[in-house]
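User: Predict the full complex structure for these chains.
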Amino acid sequence: MSTVLRDPPDLAGDAGGIVARRAVARWGWRLFRREWRQQLLVLGLLTVAVAATIWGVGVVTNTQLSNPNYATFGTAAAQVTLPGSDPHLAADIATIQARWGPADVIENKDITTGTTQSVYLRAENPHGHFNSPLLGLVSGRYPAGPGQVALTSQVAALYGAHVGGTWRAAGTAWRVTGIAADPSNLADEFALASPGQVTHPSQVVMLLGSAAAQQAISGGNGTLPGVPAATLSFPTGQSGRVSPATVILLVEVLGLVFIGLVSVAGFSVMAQRRLRALGMLSAIGATERNLRLVMIVNGLAVGVAGALAGAAAGFAAWFAYVPALQQAAGHVVDAANLPWWAIALGVVFAVATSVLASRRPAKTMAAVPVVAALSGRPAPPKAVHRSALPGVIVFAAGVVCLATAGGLAGASGNGGSAALHLVGGLAAVIIGIVLLAPLAISMLRASSWLPVAIRIALRDLVRYRARSGAALAATTFAVFLAMGICVVASVQFENVLSWTGPNLSSSQLIVYAQPEQGGPPVASLSSTQLAEVSRRVSSLAASLHARSAVPLESAGATLHQVGAQAHKDFTGTAYVATPQLLATYGITAGQIAPGTDVLTMRPGMASLPHMELAWGNYGIQQGPGGQGHKDSVLPSCTVSSGCLTSPRMQTVSGLPSGTSAPNTVITEYTVTKYRLQTQLGGWLIQAPAPLTAAQISAARQFARTYGATVETESGSLGPGEIADGATALGIVIALSVLAMSVGLIRSETAQDLRTLTATGASGTTRRTITAATAAALGLLGAVLGMAGAVIAGLAWARSSLSVMFGDVPLTDVLILLIGLPLIAAVAGWLLAGREPPLIARQPIE
Amino acid sequence: MSRPGLDGDGQGVVSVLELRGVSKTYGQEPARVRALGGVDLSVRAGEMVAVMGPSGSGKSTLLTIAGSLEEPTSGEVLVCGMALAGMPRGRKARLRRRVIGYVFQDFNLLPGLTAAENAALPLELDGVAVPKARAAGLAALEALGVAGQAGRFPDQLSGGERQRVAIARAVVGDRRLLLADEPSGALDSVNADEVMRLLHEACQRGVATLVVTHDAQLAAWADRVVVLRDGRVSGQTTRPPGPESLLTPGEIR
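Assistant: Here is the predicted structure of the two-chain assembly.
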């Protein structure tokens, strides 16, 4: 039959343009409104990420002053301090003002308050040239004449004074005109009087401009020519360090990478649920681009909703936290002082993550054949590429790279190359794991004696191994990451002599009686100075509510291990185990075995072979000019040369852990027996509660005043904390990946689930299938991740297995190996059991 | 009654849909399944053809191939004289937006879009301005007697109303080929008959219609009934159509 086309249809034109895109975008948006509850996990993660970013950048930006020098110098370029005992005080002030131009003169006088709180009666012009960051008015007005004073709120509270009332101090009745504060240092308590109203000041501080600073610097020695009593100091230079907000943003980006992975899985599940609707859309003429747009609009909606919710939560948290931060930081915090660029970037990153994560599922679903999509059938399982051999090769190459990196790290001058090998090795090992995952999945064999639900779960994993292989790779990666950190941390802490242990606890503080701990030898303070500092340290301890400041005596002795090739030195200071020190930690004399030379809490140190305790000038070669340097070859170890072979060491768990706290001490028995010379090295202050930023700031000011040094918690983590944190992180990542992957795999096999239900399977069967799927992936991921991490760690550290397993925290290993699959199974059991039609049939009318 | 595209003897008429020796197989040996084997079929403008046959005879496959949703393994498919073989996907999508209308057994309306929006969707996807597309959608709903439900969402409509909206979506614009896969399968007999009447009305406006159905009584609405068995055309009725014609074996050839 011949066919004549009378009126051929016009098929010219584009894909519908903006109108079509708007139509599918509208549908995508309405789908989001209908189904946002199913995307709560992704929404929640994005919300937390944005909220944490806003709160985090707010905190890190405002914890420190915008310029740390403000707290001491205001906006001045130099500060001159004149003691109140200066016989030519008035003349010196006049000289300085005459020579170096305008200066702010601040006269301080100590006031006895009856408490440890030091309060200054301070005379200064509130509208000076440089003191605006140092002075602020809270209420009332500044004093404007004789007999008037403005108090800080704490001083007002201390004396029960109020604005308009009278305050009696320094033999004068003052009228309180206002409440003032030092915005840069809220711990600075003072009573502000007008200039010239303080007689016999104990100290005069002058803030000078840049001209004075230039001349003083050119004069050298940090002194002002013609004013010998003056002590000159300058603001420290602002280093070009990375903005803290940038660091927070980087952390956010890392978090968003993980959230992005979870989102991909989440959006895949959503796309799966909409498969029939997408098929229908395609059947009536939507292009693949239109179909992708539906999913991308959903991703955009999730991203924007998460970012907005996160921004609201973040700002609420920030504004709520400002008062607490102000108290902790010890300076006034401007709640609006936020790095808005970082916040904007954080929000944009979150939205972009969601949009990017929606692209892959969108592309996958748009490519499903229309007929398959219309029937609600997912695309048949993809054939797995033969990735086993490349996987083995890449993994092996990674291990070799890591081994090389370990070797290079030991050699000097190869830092860059070692880092390159390390990064390359880690990347190759991770890629190798990803390539090997499908092979590992295909090795799952379900024996016929297993219950049918478990059999189905395992066989589905093998059937859908393109999907389950990716899930296994992600789970393995999470465990690898956690276990790798545990292994590396344990290797780092393997040498108990050179122990990069945790630093002081947050409630500890050590005052060193010399300007710089561990620095070059400096002249010790005189006995008079030490007595004064000691008295002040006790006062400081009292202000921190500590019972006492425990003196730390050093015997100038140290430990080392003699090896076949090189000896290992003990790091840290071995203090003397004074009764007061031992009592601080509840250690009684009865706990110490007679004849013990050294007490330590470092695990394994007491049993180290070839140990020597050296003191005095043992191994020190005196050079020209009296300079000493360590001999490259140590002399024989004898008591007469200042060395004791195999000192008796006892492990005492009561001693505190940490490098700075005295964790290894020399007994008084040994000090006496070998006539070791002791000297006061510092004081340990153990406060009942964590020190606040203001207390630490006050302690540092104290140290600066008396030429001492304080050490507080450094924030570095111990091996246990690192391992626990890594384990928790790994489990959270692995469980998130498992939740998404298992949901996806189970929704793909929902038809089978319907059949099972039709043949009489109960909710228990459905739960068992889901739980077994999650547990199998979790267990396999844990085993593979752990094996990969141990192999990689061994290659990198080139240690022996015994040492590795001797130090790796077994609890964390067990948690990963048993806990992860167990939690996955329980969660799978609890979350499964939904009626299959809801999963199998997408919501299409 | 004379209908556009149809004349009395069928000579010199327009074939909107033409299948020439169409075969379709699924899977690989030894699990290869032949769904269609050398099917020839032609549907003229204004003609309603019903496809009947037992389950697995290839009815739905025939419909999806005719609608450009699947490629035949061999053979040729022409819609309005244009061969689908080798046609780019974008052009096929335009064909589905402008020429072919689908009616599914389970309605397949998009949740989240109102009845009017569902009906206007093909036009909007084709870039027709929203007001114009909405007006056309409303007109289609009006013609099908569900204009009163235009603002309702699919889950607020009855089964019969949903299928009317689906038909409105399938005929909106200048469609020339209507493909219906068991359009009354999910409806009661009253609504099923009504749906077939509406499809018949579309035919009277010149739309070529291919309906897959199991119901011999509903197939009686068709101008021609094609019977498929094991993927091959095993017979077809001739006019005058009527339910009784299917019951007489002698008239099946």
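Confidence is low (pLDDT under 50) at residues 1-12, 248-253 of chain B.
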